[in-house]
Amino acid sequence: MKSKSRENDGVTIVDLSGRMTLGEDTLLLRETIRDLISRERKMILLNLGDVPYIDSSGIGELVSAFTTVKNSGGELKLLNLTKKVRDVLQITKLYTVFDVFLNEEGAIHAFGKEATPTVFAG
Known about the structure:
By secondary structure, the chain is α/β, with parallel strands linked by helices.
């Protein structure tokens, strides 16, 4: 997995690509989140549009990232879920935990507000 960060209107967007699986992939996400928090970047949008697959370790790391950011006083939202990632979040009922968005602009505007997450038809 690879990650690249950029800023837009005070929000750090982390563009992730590749499989999010046990090992270096989940470690990369953990280190990325810790680095952002240490630099006081607390509004984080994870763009998962290029993540074709996620296993249970990847899901665990997403939940851990969400908790870490929230405990630091920040917000973490998800963007552009692929079908497989969306299906896993639906099956595990975690789509109710995360604010999930289909477009970047809407996600960025939702930071600092009570968000209306995307609801996926079944």
